[in-house]
Each structure stands twice: as C-alpha cells, then as structure tokens.
Amino acid sequence: MLRDGLVDEVGLLVAPVADGAVGTPSLFHVDGVGPGHTQEHSAHRLALDAVERRAGDVLWPRYRVEPRVERR
To answer: How high does pLDDT run on average in the chain?
Structure first.
C-alpha cells in the first residue's frame, strides 16, 4: 500500500522493551530487495507530525509520508 501511494500517514506505538530476537519481522519489507538482489526500490521519507506519550511510557509518533526518493 505504501509503494502504491495509498498511505499518507504512518503511526507507530513504541514500547519501552528491547527484544532483538533473530527472525523478528521488520516494519516494512520489500520482497526481492537487499544483498544479492538487483531489484531497485524507492524509499519514502517520513516527516514527524506529532508525538504523544501514552500510559506505561509508550510513545505514539505519527509521521506524514513524503514523496518518494529514488535509491541507487
């Protein structure tokens, strides 16, 4: 949906916990992109609009999706 321009805002909930487990899924995944792959992709810059502190020291940042930036 992000790649197709259907997302204009990204909101996250950040909890004060460090996991670091191997194989933990990433927030954004692009199939066929990375070491050993030749497919190119475009990155999206996110501009911080707001941050709210919630119960339990959880942070809720909200980002506006900026136009694509071509990666080389």
So the answer is: 79
Q: How many CB atoms lie within 10 A of CB 2?
A: 14
DSSP for 14-65?
Answer: B-S-----TTPPPSS--TT-STT-----EEEEEEEEEEEEEGGGEEEEEEEE
Residues in the chain: 72
Nearest residue to 5 (alpha-carbon basis) of 70, 66, 71, 50 = 66
Tell me the C-alpha distance between 40 and 66, whole Å. 19
- Alpha carbons 27 and 4: distance in angstroms, whole number: 17
pLDDT in tens, 17-49: 887 777 766 676 666 555 655 556 667 789 999
Token pair for residue 32? 């066929």
